[in-house]
Specification:
- The protein is 30% helix and 20% strand.
- The chain is α+β, with helices and mostly antiparallel strands and 367 residues long.
- Strands 1, 2, 3, 4, 5, 6, 7, 8, 9 and 10 form a 10-stranded mixed β-sheet that branches.
- A hairpin with an 8-residue loop joins β2 and β3.
Length: 367
């Protein structure tokens, strides 16, 4: 017997989760990362300490009939800034109550009221086959760092030279040696379709046999940058730089390790041949202690891009039109079951009764 069930509707949610300043002016990060912490046997538990967990808790306020399981496009570690990340979720509920606009408003209301450093940029209904991770054709990362000028006065100060306006937003190097031109020339070593096994902090055993370490890096560039807020003392003490990296997908810690390797080369602690060896010999032993992985605070996920045709869905449908669509699909399913029916007489009567009710509802919508 067919139950009257509203079909799940898939949405893609664009959100921003930077390290924001609180009232006292000190930037903090309240999350343990994106991914929910594993609790054996409890896939639907509430986790208010991660971005994924908070999104699921907030979506429950939209009153879906199912548990809102979040599927991310990119997992960000604790301390990494997401200027634009995406997730998708399937929600089962009344389409007159659950729609892109209502989800957008409710989530931002929830995060604002509870003082969480997450804001929703956009919510869009997408086709059923859409997948936020698999269908992203490009991800853009940025890594910010500050290099002390030779003879900077901060070396004579007793306090740590990390200004509040840049605290946890930029990686501050301690060595003033930084050959920017050599680094720019070396960036090309990592560009192209190559095996980055040496730059992944997870072993091949942990990644799994079916996971390849080959990735397509479309561009990697170093360019001058600036403080978030213009500050004379900062520009006198430091020069600011940023690495821009674009690719389809990345391995765990790959961007930070690429930047770390290039900075180590720019400081003269390794040769160009050592950087090339990371690609020529893509095993974990190639990553030696001379390369120190830079902190997460300087890394930004800038954007996740999709082809327009993968996102295309007729969002102009009204709640009434979606209801008609659901009724028509259910009627077609019942008619198919009736043609192949081999059950009891009572089950057949129930199917025909439900079909009559659907046709009556459709007739009222057409009036």
């Amino acid at each position: 017997m067919i139950l009257n069930k509203t079909p799940d509707i898939k949405y893609v949610i664009y959100y921003i989760c930077p390290t924001l300043e609180h009232d006292i002016g000190i930037p903090v990060c309240n999350f343990l990362g994106f991914q929910k912490q594993n609790v054996s046997g409890k896939p639907t538990y509430d986790d208010p300490h991660t971005i994924c967990g908070l999104l699921e808790i907030a979506l429950k306020g939209c009153e879906p009939l199912n548990h809102p399981t979040i599927i991310p496009s990119s997992r960000t570690d604790k301390g990494v800034h997401a200027l634009c990340n995406t997730v998708h979720v399937d929600l089962d509920g009344d389409p007159r109550k659950i729609c892109s606009r209502s989800i957008h408003l409710h989530l931002n209301r929830f995060f604002t009221f509870n003082d969480h450093d997450i804001r929703i940029l956009r919510v869009q209904q997408v086709p059923d086959q859409f997948h936020s991770r698999h269908q992203a054709y490009e991800r853009q990362y940025l890594y910010r760092l500050a290099v002390p000028r030779a003879g900077a006065l901060w070396r004579q100060r007793p306090l740590v030279p990390s200004p509040l306006t840049e605290h946890n937003r930029c990686c501050f190097l301690q060595d003033s040696t930084f050959d920017s031109e050599a680094i720019k020339a070396a960036c090309g070593i990592f560009v192209g379709v190559k095996d980055f096994g040496a730059l992944c902090s997870k072993s091949r055993e942990k990644l799994g046999r079916n996971v390849t370490t080959v990735r397509d890096i479309r561009s990697l560039e170093l360019s001058p940058s600036a403080p978030f807020i213009p500050n004379r003392q900062l520009t006198e003490d430091y020069t600011f730089w940023q690495f821009s990296c674009i690719g389809k997908s990345f391995l765990y810690h790959q961007v930070r390790r690429m930047v770390s390797a290039l900075v180590t080369y720019g400081q003269g602690r390794v040769d160009l041949a050592d950087i090339q060896r990371l690609i020529d010999k893509p095993v974990q032993d190639s990553w030696t202690p001379v390369y120190q992985t830079l902190g997460a605070c300087g890394l930004y996920l800038v954007d996740v891009l999709y082809h327009a045709e993968d996102l295309s869905y007729n969002e102009e449908l009204t709640a009434e039109q979606r209801k008609v669509q659901a009724l028509e699909e259910e009627a077609a399913q019942i008619m198919k079951q009736l043609t192949e029916f081999d059950g009891t007489v009572m089950d057949k009567i129930n199917l025909k009764t439900r079909l009559i009710k659907i046709k009556n509802s459709l007739a009222r919508f057409s009036c």
